[in-house]
Amino acid sequence: GNVDLVGLEKTGLLAPTGRVSVALADAVGQVLASTTARGAVPDKATHVTDRQHFQASWTRPGLAVAQPVFAEALQRWLVPAGRQLQRPDGAFAGAVLLAFDAALLTEGFKVNEHEGNVVGVVGADGSFRSRLSDGRQTAGDRVDGDRLVRASAQTERSMKPTPGTSDRVAR
To answer: How far is CA 40 from the centre of its chain?
Structure first.
């Protein structure tokens, strides 16, 4: 069937407008449809076999969230992701690709009560999908995920501040 992604975007069903980009690609990576918001696929791209979120969707049946990328044209960090589409026989049929403004993950948190406070979303790979500290939003920074989980568990038990993995400041 046909999917009118631009129409869905205009109705606000892919909100927030301009901060989420969606595209549909077939099994060989040909872009079949995309929203007008930029990011899910490079401008004027017709094939996406080289994009990490499309490649990840080949082997993962669930949502594959890729490393954040800085979009120079948009001057912001994007988090690309892809979800595999399957034929009735289970064969790879393509992917729904999306990219969203990384700031959506940390916006709205009041972190500046004390200088140096940080709010972030970290993937299992140890990469920040979004990080907000002192009013500055970034993405892509890496941390030791195992150490972060251990420190979090220790903080929950003791309720004492634990030194951060990036700057060693106790919070």
So the answer is: 11
